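Lab notes, practical 5.
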Amino acid sequence: MGVSEILAQIDREIAQLQRARALLSGSTATPKKAAPAAAPAAKKAAKKKRNLTPEGRKRIAEAVKRRWAEQKKTVPSK
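Output from the prediction step:
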């Protein structure tokens, strides 16, 4: 039995368990098809991008400017 056959069998068992769970929970919606084995890696790449507000960007920019100003003060110039 090859790896692909084992993965296919696991996917069938997952689908069967999802159908049983849907029946037991009283859900009438059909369960989703079992995800392929490569899905966990793709899921991380497909995370929702976080957006900053303009105010948040401004605060970060000001903090970076203050940080660099402090570093310029402490580092002796050549």
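Observations recorded by the TA: The two ends are 70 Å apart (CA to CA). Helices lie at 3-25, 39-45, 54-74.
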